[in-house]
Amino acid sequence: MLRILTAFLLVATLAGAAQAADYTAAPPPVMHAPAYTTLPACDEPSVLARVTGNFAYQDAHVTLAGLAISRIDGVRERALKAGGPSLTDVRYCSGTAWLSNGRASEVVYIIEGPMKGPFSIGWNVESCVVGHDPWHVYETRCRSIRP
Asked: Is the pLDDT of residue 132 over 80?
């Protein structure tokens, strides 16, 4: 009797496995977030104000050089990564920052958004002025925020 019961369970298990192997479900569709089309342009005054503010904060709390960005010229968009598998779109920008000591230096910055979470809605700017990143937070010549 035990042999018959064991054989029955074995046949039932194999039949179930064969039936499961025949069933091929379609993979779920890949969902991408829509492109964040309201990322501001590289030369938007609010973006340039954030770049200037980032540099001022860095100078006041890190480098203590007494420098400020007077103006930013020659602003260009280098690349735009939007609508891909990442939930955050990124606009890569660069320009020439004129400092309060009269010297010019390349400024590299990214605009990223939409920021997720309850306290970070909107977009963010990360910036780096080449030659004024003493601890290489953005690597040599601001390489980590370049496209």
From this structure: yes
